[in-house]
Amino acid sequence: MDNQNIASSKKYILVFVALVALVLISTGISTLNLGYLNPLLTIGLAGVSAIIVLTQFMKIKLDGSFARLLVAGILALALLIFFVAFVG
Amino acid sequence: MSQSLSMTGNLSKPKETSLSGVWLFIFIELLLFAGLFLLYAVYRYKNGMAFDLAASELSVASGVWNTIIILSGSLVMAFASIAIRKGNKMAALFWLLGVLFIGFMFLVNRYFEWKGRIDFGLFPGSEELARLGHGDVLFFGLYFFMTGLHALHLLAGFVVLIYVTSKVNNNSLGANNYALLDKTGTYWHLATLIWVLIFPLFYLL
């Protein structure tokens, strides 16, 4: 592989490791009794994971209005789920 | 057509038309699942205790395992994308077959997880689930519908991936025209994106 491809492969491996780490952290947090922080952190970390998948694997660039709409939609959805399901 | 999957928001550029179509499809898919996520949130608000108890019936280890499987599928799909850009046909085929294998592993894990719930009578329409109460019926109804819909998306991706793999194999796709592989990859990553949002709702909350 040329240097650019090697760099890309390394980047993807790092992204994968980061996503797995986020999953394990979320799972660990779910075993703790942190009150409202539990769903807030779990949904927040899921939102971060989703944005990482969008920007790194799907290569959406955050400099476009459509991309910003997608990311804002995911964040708004995460907040809505938290407030509707857990705060009421 | 641009080989980059960037989306700058300028839909009038002809070179981005094809990819804009993919992103429009993805946007509609995300809207569909967003509706289901909100439905989950409303039902959970109304049946908080029942959802907590019903969620404890699911195997967190199985959910984590499936999440790692589908993330590795996206990683391998990215490797296939790199290989085709370099014009390395054998490597691209190797990684594409790897994605197919990983997707199959995900579906096998999903099958055993569903089988476990069904063996316990925890499926929509069962007497056992009806006895547990309205909240459990809603939880498992949503669980089977959302994970089933996700599995259907994966199956659709599976079919397209087999087609793309055959195109790479007969040299119809290569270093100079890899847009179809990129679009398929984007769809595959969409399945990963949806799963990382589904996983915490049913297994961790």
UniProtKB/TrEMBL annotation, chain A:
Keywords: Membrane, Transmembrane, Transmembrane helix
Membrane-spanning residues: 12-30, 36-54, 66-87
Full protein name: Uncharacterized protein
Organism expressing this protein natively: Carboxylicivirga marina
TrEMBL record, chain B:
Domain annotation Heme-copper oxidase subunit III family profile: ranges: 21-205
Membrane-topology descriptor: Multi-pass membrane protein
Subcellular location: Cell membrane; Membrane
Protein's UniProt keywords contain Transmembrane: yes
Primary residence: membrane
Keyword match Lyase: no
Top-rank taxon, per record: Bacteria
Xref: InterPro entries: Cyt_c/ubiquinol_Oxase_su3, Cyt_c_oxidase-like_su3, Cyt_c_oxidase_su3-like_sf, Cyt_c_oxidase_su3_a-hlx
TM helices/strands, residue ranges: 21-43, 63-84, 91-112, 137-164, 185-204
Keywords: Membrane, Transmembrane, Transmembrane helix
Classification via Pfam families: COX3
Gene3D superfamilies, per the entry: Cytochrome c oxidase, subunit III, four-helix bundle
Protein family (similarity comment): Belongs to the cytochrome c oxidase subunit 3 family.
Name recorded for this polypeptide: Cytochrome c oxidase subunit 3
Annotated organism of origin: Carboxylicivirga marina
Source taxonomy: Bacteria, Pseudomonadati, Bacteroidota, Bacteroidia, Marinilabiliales
